[in-house]
From TrEMBL, chain A:
Composition bias, Acidic residues: 52-62
Name recorded for this polypeptide: Uncharacterized protein
Start and end residues of each stretch annotated as Disordered: 25-62
Taxonomic lineage of the native organism: Bacteria, Bacillati, Actinomycetota, Thermoleophilia, Solirubrobacterales
Sequence ranges of Basic and acidic residues compositional bias: 28-51
Domain of life per record: Bacteria
Automatic annotation (TrEMBL), chain B:
Annotated Pfam families: DUF6529
InterPro entries: DUF6529 (IPR045382)
Presence of the UniProt keyword Manganese in the record: no
Transmembrane segments: 19-39, 60-78, 84-102, 111-130
Annotated keywords: Membrane, Transmembrane, Transmembrane helix
Protein name: DUF6529 family protein
């Protein structure tokens, strides 16, 4: 009986944790954040490549 | 398994895992205090109810530890960047298994305080090697 009570309490803690985290962050927030981070990194890389290309072209013109 | 964990945590496995691991550590401190009362190292309360609560809370803690370990393994696997975290976690699971075996067999009871202390230390190392970094937002 005590073991069942402990199991139920553990499951309740897990359920409450998931509910609290989801209510604070929103569902699938980590996925969205990771995607946004990847997108930002990709944009930064593109900008850097463009700057390097422009610098190279300026160097050639001089 | 990974999809199941991601679905059940509604897409926030790292956050749920970190919060559950923090609950585990807080309960481990509580367990330590209960054991200290049970073994009369703390002069408060009575040993019998302290041991009863230690046992009941310990069963709950064992379930939480296994759930957190499964979540961690299924989502992150064995990551070489967190070697100490991995070693401490595997050690904690082994010590937990030995402790449960000793309690169930009813023999070797004199080793329980040492096993309990070792389990607490390993859980603390497991938590401190990942959770603070994540909670500080450095490991999203």
């Amino acid at each position: 009986m005590q073991l069942i009570g402990s199991l139920v309490a553990a499951l309740a803690i897990i359920a409450v944790t998931i509910a609290v985290v989801t209510s604070q962050l929103g569902p699938y927030k980590e996925d969205t954040e990771a995607r946004e981070q990847r997108q930002e990194q990709q944009e930064e890389r593109l900008e850097q490549q463009e700057e390097q290309r422009e610098e190279a072209e300026d160097g050639r013109e001089d | 398994m990974e999809d199941f964990v991601v679905d059940i945590t509604r897409g926030n496995p790292s956050s749920v895992k970190t919060i559950l691991a923090s609950v585990v550590l807080a309960l481990a401190v509580y367990q330590l205090l209960l054991a200290a009362i049970g073994y009369r190292k703390l002069p408060v309360g009575k040993p019998e109810p302290a041991f009863f609560t230690h046992r009941a809370s310990g069963d709950m803690l064992a379930v939480l530890i296994v759930v957190v370990a499964l979540m961690c393994l299924s989502v992150f696997g064995f990551d070489g960047d967190y070697m100490l975290h991995m070693v401490a976690a595997i050690g904690a699971l082994l010590v937990l298994a030995v402790k449960i075996a000793v309690v169930r067999s009813g023999r070797g009871g004199r080793f329980l305080p040492y096993l309990g202390t070792l389990l607490f230390l390993l859980l603390a190392i497991t938590w401190f090697t990942v959770a603070p970094e994540f909670l500080a937002g450095e490991d999203d």
